[in-house]
Structures are given as structure tokens and as C-alpha cells.
Amino acid sequence: MKKPVDDNKVYAILTDTTLCTGCETCVHACKQTYHLGRDRAWRWKESVDALSSTRFCTVLTKPGDHHIRQQCRHCLEPACVSACPVGALQKTDIGPVIYDSDRCMGCRYCMMACPFGIPRYKWESTVPLVRKCIMCYDRIKAGGEPACTQACPYGATIFGTRAEMLAEARRRIREHPDKYYPKGNPRIWGEHEVGGTSVLYISDISLDFLAWKPNLGDQPVPALTWGALSKVPPVALGVAGLMAVVYWTIGRRIRLQAEAEAQTTRQAPPSTHE
Ligand code: SF4
Ligand code: SF4
Ligand code: SF4
Predict the structure, then answer these.
(1) For residues 90 and 249, which has the higher predicted lDDT (pLDDT)?
(2) What residue's CA is closest to ligand 2, atom 1?
């Protein structure tokens, strides 16, 4: 049986949507930290400000002037990690789900598995990678906090241990019992959902739209995924596996070629005609 997570030992982000003004200071702090560049209207994007390879987090605006920050939920038992055949996505001991581009073979199973539709693919690149929030793993490992929570001027998105964030959410609900949704018995999104997440929300509207379907349930998705996969005939898995290997081999060749070209460009002497 899996060891239960100690909420005092994993970090979390609490977003209180009632305090968010939609200023996007958090989004810009993230972009600056990861050198994500400007957003462009690619044809595969729902909108310029949707999650993308240039936006690891975004702020969705809903009728009634509600602003909802969207980012990876850093699930306690992440479906993306269990779906990745080569271990490119990993759940760290302190909470963040991180990504290793050197291992990724581009199969995009993580994108299909995520119940919150978070990972994006860098379609615009000749060497595409999966892109998503990594909860500023290096910063928090060094004792700091995520760039986005540090930047928020309104305390709408804050950082601490999961135990502290749950306690803070409960405190806010206790102090304002009629402010949060559903009234009478407000919910902390991510407390139990899909086995619990490290990004938690309290809100005055339903946040069911952030997931595949309302009421995802409390069971971790990997358990459901493998339950379903075990019913797929082995021959089908064999073909899928073969396709994945072919895809990985081609992707790796493209990547090595691009790296070699980049190195040649760097080493080339400056042109006298420029
Ligand atoms: S929200 Fe999606 S991408 Fe993020 S950890 Fe959970 S399954 Fe993985
Ligand atoms: S936690 Fe870090 S990577 Fe994730 S959205 Fe915030 S700044 Fe970006
Ligand atoms: S910085 Fe804070 S208030 Fe501004 S959009 Fe982000 S979460 Fe909302």
C-alpha cells in the first residue's frame, strides 16, 4: 500500500480566487523567471492567453468579474507521471511534478492522461517539448518560494507547506462562511480531488470547469488509468509501444541535429559582410 503523504513535508500553493484581480503579475513573474517570451496566436491555441509553451500559468476570466489562476495542480499521485513511459515526468519528495526534456520522447501520453488538461506541447518548435509549471522546484529546494506567489500583490496566491495552506484555507472559510462556494459547506479544491493536489483553491464560484469533468472523485487517476490499461489487449499495447519507440528515435535524431547545428552556428567566425 502507498505511504500516505505527510502534509508537513510537501509544499503547496493556495489560490483564493476571491482576492484575485486578474492583474497577471503572477503570470509575468513566471514568464520572466523562465524566459518564456511573448504570447502568440498560434492556430492550435484556444486564445493568446491560454496555457501554452509561453505561459506556464494563466488567469481565466469568468462572467461576474471572476479571475481564476490556472496552472499544474502538482497532484499527489500524478496521472502524467504514471502515463509517461520513459520517466520524463517525476513527482519529487517535496511536492512539485518536474519534467526532464532529455528523457521525453514526445509521445504526449502525459497530455492525454492529465485530468486537468495542463501539459502543453511546443508545436511551434522543430524540436518540440512538453511545457508546464514545475512549481519552481529549484527555487523552493533552495529555500525560496515560487516566482508567481512571491509576486502576487494581493495575497491571492500564496505558498507554504500543504498543511499550512490547508489550515489557511480553513481559516478563511471559517472567518467568512458565506463567501465561499458552495455556501454552507465550502470546498477546498484539491484537498481530496484525484487523491489530493499540491495546488489548492478556494473560490466563490464552482471550479469544476478546470477539470475534465465535474466531480473527478477522490481516487488517484493513475489507479484508474492502469485499471483501464489492463483491459487493453497486449497486442494493442505492443503496437503503441512500438510507435512510441519509433517516435522517440525520430525525435531524438531531430534534437541532436538541431543541437549540432546550433553549436556550429555558435562556433562560426563572425561574417565580415554584416
Ligand atoms: S495537473 Fe496534470 S500535469 Fe499537473 S501533476 Fe496533475 S496530472 Fe500531472
Ligand atoms: S510555480 Fe513557478 S513555474 Fe509554476 S506558474 Fe508559478 S512561477 Fe511559473
Ligand atoms: S498576481 Fe495575484 S491578483 Fe494578480 S492575477 Fe495573479 S493571483 Fe491574481
Answers:
(1) 90
(2) 135
With a 6 Å cutoff on the Cβ, whether 135 touches ligand 2 is: yes
- Rounded to whole angstroms, the Cα distance separating 198 from 190 reads 7
Predicted TM-score (pTM) of the model is 0.83
What is the CB < 6 Å shell around ligand 3?
A: 20-26, 59, 67, 69, 152, 154, 156-157
- Which residue's C-alpha comes closest to atom 4 of ligand 3? 23
The phi and psi torsions of 139 (rounded to 5 degrees) equal -65, -45
In the chain, where the domains are located: 11-228, 232-265
- Residue 203, classed as helix, strand or coil, is coil
Please tell me the residue having the least CA distance from ligand 1 atom 7.
Answer: 114
* Contact between residue 97 and residue 89 where contact means Cβ atoms under 8 Å apart: yes
Q: How does residue 266 score in pLDDT terms, banded at 50, 70 and 90?
A: low
3 state DSSP class of 52? strand
> Right CATH number for 11-228 from 3.30.360.10, 3.40.50.1000, 3.30.70.20, 1.25.40.390?
3.30.70.20
**Using CA positions, which residue lies closest to atom 6 of ligand 1?**
75
pLDDT in tens, 50-97: 999 999 999 999 999 999 999 999 999 999 999 999 999 999 999 999
